[in-house]
């Protein structure tokens, strides 16, 4: 993600991610309500403090949206049931060490506290925010310490580019011309990563705790389906054009692949059942139109840029890629393509009890 | 503090703070040993995870020194007493929201983990680092969640410049020409702040927990004693020179005061007893020679600059103060004065059971 709060920053180009969170609010509310009201676990019912983790929190207006929901819903439930004393809240914000935690702490956390005071209206409300750097494909929190885990638009990122995908040639992700072995390598990396994620969380989430995960996925059972690969094909198109103009080397493009996998519903289900620690309460697929990104292809491209730029710069170098020329080319291609069809981002939320 | 890791950064100019931590290591070790071995609290003895907080952690090589000691001492004690299973460790790093947490997460935390693996030598060791932004003159952590609290060279910073010190004229701290009412205002601010600090920590530290605090103080009962005011008088001297040269306005200097108070032993003791939550196990005063800053006045001045520059820039503006001219002038004055006497920083560690 691009850090900071400038024009190309993720913070200023995360409208689609906001829409997705908004869409999953009823599910988040149901999970939190069940956590508080239906849990038979004394660890939850007698808790003086409730701890939630936002995994892949990024830096921007979305970072604390679900935390706000969490505090508001719990406070409402407590008041409704005559508990004057609200629990203390711990909000643990996780992302990779390169995430811009400074901006969260300096800009977004103070606004969060101000909004909380206004909306929940209790000066005796304690809500402690902390930043937890690290990969969620490893342990991040103490055992049995979390009541609620949320992650949105992060779990489709793999821990690394799969091995044995050098033969993927001009594709930068699974594409229509990708060999079968490349697709298998991507899928197996997803299986390993997702299973590791579940095992780590199963140690951290306490008995009775809940988890709501939303990730970019696909409706089709075919991993090379256009619905998830399209946007990367557009990016590849711009890169190929730069190769033909001699701006970047062909070999450099050949060795570039995106560490992402957008699973199908059944692939997610299979992995959860195989790992065995969690029970699925709800598993669904939803669509969000590209138009939700701000109404035009230009904004879709800006959104993609804010996400992909660090990957591109890391591989091809800053000099070539943060040029107005490349950005303009990619923006133009996406804008054109977005006008031709109504491609969509697919999100799938689910949770466990 | 100056952020980052550049030449003027706190990270590169915190040798004196390192010496102080080094000096207090036996006290830290005794406190941790008592925490683990002598505690009658089942919360500590049966704990699967141990949580320590470093308050005013700053950003630099000192940030994680005591955390390393904490993990090493506990691991050694566990092994010595035949506990194969080490507890999980939670290291909570606190400082103001403006602290450079990004550099901690990107540079110092990875080195910490690498060193830990080398020194404790267990791949099954879990040590979770998080950043907690906020003032320690307010609640920062969930109730009864901390086993061990450490803070070094931070608690002499007040929450704000005391009110009613406008009459302090050319002094920027308590100085030999400060009116009695200014000294009283500073002392009362220290009393309010320190008492608030103790009340907040008493809610967060669990029964049987330990706290080791080191702060800049003074031997003398007189708050205007040269031992603590001297360094600020040197800085004031440089500022006055700039006024005489018309580089800054006299009024601007008149309204600048440092939010610091260096208490005496009895002032600390009085406050702890008055607040009543903590028992003092040990309270002592130690000296560290200016020479420990790196051997010369130039290094003392660089150390002071890395601490004071943000305060100066905040008040006088960047244009005037981050000039080589000012820095050179201050460095020269301090170097000269340091050569004349053997002024010392006074540190006072203490802890409670």
Question: Short summary of the structure?
Answer:
2 copies of one chain form a homodimer. Chain A is an alpha/beta fold and 353 residues long. In chain A, strand 2, helix 5 and strand 3 form a beta-alpha-beta unit.
Explain this structure to me?
Chains A, B: It holds the Pfam family Methyltransf_7. Chains A, B: Belongs to the methyltransferase superfamily. Type-7 methyltransferase family. The structure is a homodimer of 353-residue chains. By secondary structure, chain A is of the alpha/beta class. Helix content of chain A is 46%, strand content 16%. Chain A contains twelve helices and eight strands. In chain A, strands 1, 2, 3, 4, 5, 6, 7 and 8 form an eight-stranded mixed β-sheet that branches. In chain A, α2 crosses α4 and α10 crosses α12 (324-340). Chain A is globular. Residues 338-345 of chain A have low confidence and may be disordered. The A-B interface holds A 48-49, 51, 88, 90, 92, 97-98, 100-102, 105-106, 109-110, 126, 128-133, 139-145 and B 48-49, 51, 88, 90, 92, 97-98, 100-102, 105-106, 109-110, 126, 128-133, 139-145.
């Amino acid at each position: 993600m691009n850090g900071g709060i400038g024009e190309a920053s993720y913070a200023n180009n995360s409208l689609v991610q906001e829409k997705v969170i908004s869409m999953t609010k009823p599910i988040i509310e149901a999970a939190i309500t069940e956590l508080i009201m239906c849990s038979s676990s004394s660890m939850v019912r007698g808790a003086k403090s409730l701890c939630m983790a936002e995994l892949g929190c990024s830096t921007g207006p979305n970072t604390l949206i679900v935390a706000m929901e969490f505090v508001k819903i719990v406070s409402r439930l407590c008041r409704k049931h005559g508990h004057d004393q609200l629990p203390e809240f711990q909000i643990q914000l996780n992302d990779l060490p390169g995430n811009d935690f400074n901006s969260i702490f300096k800009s977004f956390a103070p606004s969060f506290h101000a909004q909380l005071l206004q909306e929940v209206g209790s000066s005796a409300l304690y809500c402690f925010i902390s930043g937890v750097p690290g990969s969620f494909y490893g342990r991040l929190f103490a055992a049995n310490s979390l009541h609620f885990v949320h992650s949105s638009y992060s779990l489709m990122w793999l821990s690394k580019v799969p091995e044995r995908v050098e033969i993927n040639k001009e594709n930068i992700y699974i594409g229509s011309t990708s060999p079968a072995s490349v697709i298998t390598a991507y899928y197996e990396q997803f299986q390993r990563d997702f299973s590791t994620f579940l095992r780590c969380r199963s140690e951290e989430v306490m008995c009775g705790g809940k988890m709501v995960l939303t990730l970019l996925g696909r409706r089709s059972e075919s991993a090379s389906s256009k619905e998830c690969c399209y946007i990367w094909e557009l990016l590849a198109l711009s890169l190929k054009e730069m190769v033909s103009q001699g701006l970047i080397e062909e070999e450099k493009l050949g060795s570039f692949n995106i560490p992402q996998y957008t699973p199908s519903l059944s692939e997610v289900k299979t992995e959860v059942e195989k790992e065995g620690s969690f029970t699925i309460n709800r598993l669904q697929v939803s669509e969000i139109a590209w138009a939700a990104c701000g109404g035009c292809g230009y904004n879709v491209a800006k959104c993609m840029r804010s996400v992909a730029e660090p990957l591109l710069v890391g591989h091809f170098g800053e000099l070539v890629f943060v040029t107005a020329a490349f950005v303009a080319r990619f923006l133009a291609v996406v804008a054109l393509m977005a006008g031709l069809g109504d491609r969509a981002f697919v999100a799938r939320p689910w949770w466990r009890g």
